[in-house]
Amino acid sequence: MSLLLGICYIGGGLAKLGGVGVMRADAERFKIPYSKYRLIGVAEVAGGIGLAAGPWLSLLGVAAAAGLALLMAGAVLTHVRAQDPPGRAVPAGIFGLSVLTIGLLHVVS
User: Fold this and answer.
1) Whole-structure pTM value
2) Contacts 24+ apart (CB under 8 A), 32-39
3) What is the largest CA-CA distance in the chain?
């Protein structure tokens, strides 16, 4: 699961870094300058790599999961602040809960 979610985060981060149209539109809707929005992509790529490495490097996996969970909490709040329909914040919430669960599983195992 860590590897799969890591790949998802890496893909999303690369889309932000690459300037995919929907990412630019999101940054504009959230009133975030795109140069700063790309930093979210950097965090997602780094977190995705750490999450994917988690099964072999448990401490890295825990740190990546914690960081990504915080990032997704911020994403949910950003969607709420932008007055998006609730369904637009759901993916960030699900991904955030998923990485939080993975991080907790690393801690207890």
Assistant:
1) 0.94
2) none
3) 42
Long-range contacts of range 99-103, CB-CB < 8 Å, 24 or more positions apart? 99/5, 99/47, 99/51, 99/64, 99/65, 99/68, 99/69, 99/72, 100/65, 100/66, 100/69, 102/1, 102/2, 102/5, 102/51, 102/54, 102/61, 102/65, 103/61, 103/62, 103/64, 103/65, 103/66, 103/69
Q: In this structure, what is the dihedral angle of CA atoms 88, 37, 99, 15, given to the nearest 10 degrees?
A: 80
HSE-up of residue 42 (Cα within 13 Å, Cβ side)? 6
A 10 A CB-CB count for 4 gives 10
Q: What is the DSSP letter of 7?
A: H
Give the tens place of pLDDT for each residue, 60-97.
999 999 999 999 999 999 999 999 999 999 999 999 99
Neighbours of 63 (CB within 10 A): 17
**Beta carbons within 8 Å of 32's beta carbon, 6+ residues apart:** none
